[in-house]
Write a structure and sequence with these properties.
Number of domains: 2
Strand order of the largest sheet: 1-2-3
Largest sheet: 3 strands, mixed
Structural class: mainly alpha
Oligomer: single chain
Number of helices: 12
Number of strands: 6
Length: 289
């Protein structure tokens, strides 16, 4: 009995020590909200103008140019000051629809990803931002760092899973959220809200599966090769099929086919009996050269 107690004490001390060493690192925004920020609604125009300036045609980001511009760095901080102050939780009147709420969480997430890269520049990958004891890839960047959304502190992981995935249950968000890595969806300069957000989600889905880096067919080895995003969030994609009343006999292949352009859908129809394999995720920074 005494041995069991000793073991339990050691386990508690180990867990407590791990939690203390890896305690959250709170990232605060030291800026005022834009002087012309609306008294009603929530404007993403400042962030959008920055993306149009620093995101290239391939969806990669000129982080170095952004960081070297004092004015642009300050403009991002000012936008994030608004994200820090207002959210659908503490200022619901500012968000007229579910689309506006979703836009806030997605764009705020992407903006904090960029801020974290700029704050830690130069880095070759978000995985370079490590926790003191890193047991999972990306733990330092996506879990340890904590950011303000409407006066509350969240990790990027908590925003993605607790706010976006749980509350909105739309698998297409995985084609818009950007993790600053080569294998993640491209960064998109346009930030629509309201009904127009649905058009963005639809077009982002088609573009993602149309990219051979994310979906390809190897007829020689009878394999459908998918992005690891489909493996990590398989449940979201299969649930989406079910909500739309679509068959899912072939699981992820059926999901991809449901949003693919005609040519890709036809190719997928010819993959009966093929195995699904997943491409290794490239965590290299999505840096514009």
């Amino acid at each position: 009995m005494q041995t069991v107690i000793v073991i339990l004490v050691l386990v508690v001390l180990a867990v407590g020590g791990f939690a203390w060493i890896n305690r959250p690192q709170h990232v605060l925004v030291d800026a005022e909200i834009p002087a012309d920020f609306p008294v009603a609604g929530f404007s993403h125009l400042d962030f959008e103008s920055l993306l149009r300036k620093y995101v290239d045609a391939d969806g990669n980001v000129d982080y170095e140019g952004w960081r070297n511009s004092t004015e642009s760095a300050a403009q991002l901080e000012s936008y994030l000051a608004a994200v820090s102050r207002y959210s659908p939780d503490n200022a619901p009147d500012r968000f007229a629809s579910r689309n506006d709420e979703l836009a806030y969480w997605m764009y705020g997430y992407n903006a904090y990803v960029i801020k974290s890269v700029l704050d830690n520049w130069p880095i070759e990958s978000v995985t370079d931002v490590k926790a003191p004891l890193e047991v999972i890839t990306g733990m330092g960047f996506f879990y340890r760092l904590r950011f303000q959304f409407g006066g509350k502190s969240y990790s990027l992981l908590a925003v993605e899973n607790g706010k976006i995935r749980k509350q909105f249950q739309d698998a297409r968000i995985h084609f818009v959220l950007n993790c600053a890595s080569d294998s993640c969806p491209v960064m998109r300069p346009a930030l629509p809200t309201g009904d127009a957000l649905q058009d963005l989600l639809a077009s982002a889905s088609v573009e993602f599966v149309s990219d051979p880096k994310n979906v390809s067919i190897d007829h020689a080895s009878k394999q459908v090769v998918l992005s690891s995003i489909f493996k990590w969030f398989r449940k979201d994609f299969i649930n989406d099929l079910a909500k739309r009343g679509r068959p899912s006999e072939r699981g992820l292949i059926d999901y991809v086919a449901s949003i693919a352009p005609d040519s890709l859908r036809a190719d997928l129809d010819a993959t009966q009996g093929y195995d699904v394999v997943f491409r290794d995720y490239d965590w290299s920074l999505n840096r514009a050269e």
